[in-house]
Amino acid sequence: MLNLTPRYIHTRIDELPVALQPLAAQSLTLARLYAGRGITELTELDTGLSGLLPAEMLHGVTEAVRLLDEAIDAQQRILIVGDFDCDGATSTALMMRALTKMGAVVDFLVPDRFKYGYGLTPEIVELGIETYQPDMIVTVDNGISSHEGVARAQADGITVIITDHHLTTKETPPAEAVVNPNQLDCSFTSKALVGVGVAFYVLGRLAKLRRTAGKSTVQVSQYLDLVALGTIADVGVLDKNNRILVHHGLAAIRQGRCCLGILALLEQAGRDPKQLHAQDFGFVLGPRINAAGRMDNMRIGIECLLTEDWGTAQRLAQELEQLNRTRRQVEGEMRTQADSIVQTLADGVDTDTDESRDVIVQSKPEKKAVNDHKRSIVLYQDDWHQGVIGIVAGRLKESHYLPSIVFAPADTQRTGDDDAIKGSARSIAGVHIRDAIEQVAERYPDLISHFGGHAMAAGLTLKRGNFEAFVAAFDEVMSQMNDDVFAEQKFTDGPLQASDFSLWFAEQLADANIWGHGFAPPIFDGVFEVLSFKVLKDKHLKLSLRYPDVQYPIEAIYFNFDSSVWDYRAKQVHVLFQLDINEWNGKQSLQLMVKDLAVVEKT
């Protein structure tokens, strides 16, 4: 049997919280899902916009709104400085759309990842001054650590408003206004807003102020398509506040009430907007927009979200599609190389070469499985592409269940020891990756040039010559973690009732709520009889299964399955799965998406 951790708490109606018992009378499974996610009152599932937390709770929002209002009235030149990921792109597009409707003189600038790096640096401020001559700079999805950039802007008399959501343990920059739910003195009770969520709150408060004063304004809620996209793509925790935002943005797209760029991107992906689900923001739309910032310049992605011309939207969406295909190719090559390096380490071969130093990796070689004794994977290669290191780090984290950091040169033409390399980190539950990097920075102040991020993802810059010292220091921090942190837990919401194996229930489940990070998508387990099986393309296991009291076969698919470990004598299997609807030739059928399985009985 599989070793699973139950997420469900109750199995009978009378064991559920009183508020959930009427729901349980309709669907015990659905009520169990909510109880297992800490829902005790049905009001926690409300999706009305009136349930959003008030903007007044955000520290700094009143001053930011006052300054923006005055800048619009005075026709001051406002420059939005964004970030080169999907959250930054949607934040920038939201600011541009709303402020323009309010009558502002506004333009935007997003740092080129490969030239300027992240955030409001002095260099990007100087570029902004040279190109746009702004009176005011507003950051979105960045700025909370940009002390030098703020000082550079203020030296030229430019007003700076920072809107950000990233974590910080230091004093905020002395900008004229700072709005960030995660700054030290903010009492906003949801710390899960992403950059576009913060921008939405600022603009909503500004629109209300201008409406009250009888000035030109806009209904900011009409842009919740952008908020939903940025929130899911940036893996924002889906607390109640974020679920409300995503719910309304998703509904708008399904009804066609969204920017043309999103519709054009869905057309490129062959997806029907009416059938869109929250997960599609992260797996369909997000990667295509992110491809602009990873492979070229995020301006393409932002212009796609801004255009009001369908032909232009289609053209830009096609460009993004091509960039995403290029990204997938580069990522695939890097993943193959990274997997080879990790396997070489596991086999006990030292890949650190003094002559070329093309590949530098963490760890003392040991002839054991890669996660037997190693507590992290840290890789670097001179010819790796900076734009996809975050994706590769994420894949390594998923496949080996270890905190993973992948580095690439900041400039592939400069790979000397004094030249910068940039790293992207992805983490596992229990390892706060940004804090771990900060511990390294505090112990060894000369190792890391810059860093920032979240619990699960972070970025950092250091000199190539400091790489090995960083690896040792990071390993030192990881060695202080408890062993059980590195043992992956696989959760289950328990077994399904026979009546749940239906298209109707799969559809109800998909639409019941906004599932995602922090409000985990339902996953179930059960013991099934194997009726038949076949291996597709040597890597996908397709099963036909029977479940007790279900009168028809249930189809299941296990993608990227290691067929060499499949026991052809399997008669019964314990399966961890998600419910899915398979569409083929215009017909729908129930399908189990297998996440893990174990043979229980053999013929």
Structure description:
The protein has 603 residues and is α/β, with parallel strands linked by helices. Helices cover 38% and strands 19% of the residues. It has 18 helices and 18 strands. The strands form four sheets. The chain has a six-stranded mixed beta sheet, with helices on both faces. The protein is globular and about 80 Å long.
Helix content: 25-40%
* Helix vs. strand class: alpha/beta
N→C terminal distance? 17 Å
Question: What general outline do the C-alpha atoms trace?
Answer: globular
Rg: 25 Å
User: Biggest β-sheet, characterized?
Assistant: 6 strands, mixed
Low-pLDDT segments, ≥5 res: 351-372
Strand portion, in percent? 15-25%
- Quick one: how many beta strands? 18
Mean pLDDT: 92
Q: What topology does this entry show?
A:
Elements: E1 5-6, H1 21-26, H2 28-36, H3 61-73, E2 77-81, H4 86-101, E3 105-109, H5 122-132, E4 136-140, H6 147-155, E5 159-163, E6 177-179, H7 195-212, H8 224-233, H9 240-254, H10 260-269, H11 278-295, H12 299-306, H13 310-346, E7 359-361, H14 370-373, E8 377-381, H15 389-400, E9 404-409, E10 420-426, H16 433-443, E11 448-453, E12 457-463, H17 467-478, E13 491-492, H18 503-512, E14 524-536, E15 540-546, E16 554-558, E17 570-584, E18 587-602
Parallel strand pairs: 1-13, 2-3, 2-4, 4-5, 5-6, 8-9, 16-18
Antiparallel strand pairs: 7-8, 9-10, 10-12, 11-12, 14-15, 14-17, 15-16, 17-18
Helix pairs in contact: 3-7, 4-7, 4-8, 4-12, 5-6, 7-8, 8-9, 8-11, 10-13, 11-12, 11-13, 12-13, 13-15, 16-17
